[in-house]
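It is worth pausing here to work through a concrete case rather than discussing structure prediction in the abstract. The textbook approach is simple: state the sequence, then state the predicted structure, then interpret. We follow exactly that order.
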Amino acid sequence: MNSDALHSWKQRIFEHQQSAASEQPQQGTLFELTPNPCDPNNIDPFTLELHNLSFCDKPDWGDRTCLYFVIDNALPLLLYVGETHRTPKQRWANHYCHSYIGNYIELHRRYSLDVSVAIAFWYGAPSNRQQRLQLELELIYKWKSPFNKECWQYWGQR
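Step two, the predicted structure:
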């Protein structure tokens, strides 16, 4: 991929994600007094605390399920959405997404482009695995994160 193709690819993703971010959550009913925290429209990955990808070198945060988001904060772009029923460290240690991220960073360095890949965690995920997987899928389709295989049809496999 040359520099122009990379820029165009990122721009298309950025435009979609900016549109997704501006979508307003649906109005709740009279009986729903508080918003559903597990509504994908109430989860903004770009507002979460970012950690560098070597977070695995730090002490574990305990056995907590979560959703996690790989973000290039330079533009910003949401690159990957995942869930874990183990600790984030256990899940991330041998994740296939590493090669995509490595190639993505290398391509940016080759063309001297800004890149700032980080990871963010959301610990409000349901403890029920089926519900967590459903929420993960809804977020993947909302943001169309390019490193999730469900979205390769939109952006191409990386």
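Step three, interpretation. The radius of gyration is 16 Å. The chain has a mean pLDDT of 83.
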